[in-house]
Design brief:
This protein has 232 residues and is an all-alpha fold. It has a single domain (8-222), classed as Four Helix Bundle (Hemerythrin (Met), subunit A), CATH 1.20.120. Helix content is 67%, strand content 0%. The chain is built from 9 helices and no strands. It has helices spanning 8-13, 15-37, 43-62, 65-72, 81-105, 113-136, 166-182, 188-212, 216-222.
Length: 232
């Protein structure tokens, strides 16, 4: 059963603040990406930044305001901290290397344009799928923990009626497609590592929830697959 989201009136009053935060994040993303690449004339980089900016802004709008504050709250302790750190470091390495490769180094930036366009489309779809999961799950935080302080309950609506970990399903695709969308072959290496880390983290979180969250075992019996229907 899904937990009710924040009161609509409260969410509406918080909308300007969320818009400002989203726009600031978009500006930082664009300055960071174009600054690392050192160029502004790369079509796929500009397309990637634009698509990511739009999706990020949408994320700030569809996310429950309370969830947004919870995700920024410091001092949270949970399961699997080493792998979470590995995910963050690996993604940063992928992104920075890909930007340097296509803008300054040119060591492996020969990805065909058609492949980059296709990868960007898949990246955007995976990102949108993840945002769908965020929009219906007010417990979607980076730290694996039982959120008893927030009335943690099983969420089984939206994409959670299809697979148990739709957020991870989207993230699984985003590393490799990010590398190809930007146009760097060698950035695929950390992209694949990132996918493996997300796969392992999804398995860890599934075991944790099965053993600690009331109702999760019944939910797992109804929704059999973790990430990919018919596969796993």
């Amino acid at each position: 059963m899904s937990e009710p989201m924040t009161d609509p009136q409260s969410a509406a009053s918080d909308l300007p603040q969320r818009l400002v935060r989203g726009l600031l994040f978009v500006v930082v993303l664009a300055v960071f990406a174009l600054g690392i690449a050192g160029r502004t004339d790369l079509p796929m980089l500009n397309a990637f930044v634009a698509a990511t900016a739009v999706l990020m802004l949408a994320g700030f709008l569809v996310m429950d305001p309370e969830l947004g504050r919870e995700r920024l709250r410091r001092g949270q302790v949970g399961e699997d901290p080493a792998r979470l750190l590995g995910i963050r470091v690996t993604f940063l390495a992928l992104f920075v290397y890909a930007l340097l490769d296509i803008g300054r180094l040119h060591w492996s930036d020969g990805v065909p344009r058609t492949l980059s366009i296709g990868a960007l489309a898949v990246f955007a779809l995976a990102f949108a799928w993840e945002l769908w999961a965020v929009s219906v799950n007010r417990f979607f935080v980076p730290v694996i923990r039982l959120q008893t302080d927030r009335g943690h309950r099983v969420v089984d609506t939206g994409p959670y009626a299809i697979v148990r970990h739709p957020g991870y399903a989207g993230m699984l695709l985003m590393g490799p497609t990010c590398a190809l969308a930007l146009g760097s072959w060698w950035a695929l290496a950390p992209g694949v590592v990132l996918s493996a880390l997300f796969l392992a983290r999804a398995a860890h979180e599934d075991r944790f929830l099965a053993g600690n969250l009331e109702g999760y075992a019944d939910y797992a019996a109804r929704v059999r697959f973790r990430l990919v229907p018919g596969v796993w």
